[in-house]
Amino acid sequence: KEHLEVLITADKLNMEKKVILVTGGSGLVGKGIQTVISSDKREDEEWIFLSSKDANLLIKEETFAVFEKYKPTHVIHLAALVGGLYAHLGNNCDYFRSNVKMDDNILEACHQNKVKKLVSCLSTCIFPDKTSYPIDETMLHNGPPHPSNAAFSYAKRVMDLQNRKCNEEHGCMFTSVVPCNVFGPHDNFDPLHAHVMGALINRAYEAKKNGTTFEIWGTGAAQRQFIYNLDLAKLFIWVLREYQEIDPIILAPDEADEVSIKEAAMMILEAFDFKGEVKYLTDKSDGQLKKTASNAKLRTYLPQFQFMSTRQAIRETVQWYVDNQLTARK
Length: 330
What we know:
Largest sheet: 6 strands, parallel
């Protein structure tokens, strides 16, 4: 009898083991999750982090092959064609087609392979342009997004629609998170195509190294909430393990933590101890001037969660960038 109980317990543990596949595993958020998981390992979890070298997720056959290879029970879908404001401008068609195709391949692979839970990544940039603030999860489809990234926004809104329909028709536990502007170690620091924080850090580094003017594209007036990639990683892991709603959840610091692009730029210059000239290129677009998001829903679940301050997260990111010049994406 005792031997039988041991076998039953072992079988139960084996049956409950989670194989968690993370697409986009070598990117900003994927690397953050890897870092957090390294100190938060659970015996019943096996984590697999995919990069573009493992499969081209735009191709259905390659997507299904990688699912067949690893047989995931859970999926975090981070892979996307994404960039900053100036990457989106002029590339909306490609951004729409590629993201819709990739997301549909992942959703179908998850459904066909009976994945128990899928957590996909949306963005606060996909909310309506003309709206009241703060925005919350109920307002996602209430109007057109900002024209600068309309194609990406509609592609990601389709993901939310698919999650709901897969749940209604097939009972799938497919959900999504809506982070605000993410930055941190392993970000893209390309000055033309990166998101704002990575691009500003690159320009500040080059301006200090070369003794040149530091340029801020636009007026610097646009307001943003920023989240450090390690904070977002912790929340992603919590969503995978604990969150049981199909409705998306906004992952963002408190509204009071919102800063202007000018303020963020000054924090970056402070971290570099930059004393040179600063110039605003006001002929460049500011993009969406405001997209303040409410984290009230998150706070009902995790009232005590502490976000790293933007200033401290910038210091840590700047130091990482300086220390990893040879390998940083730029």
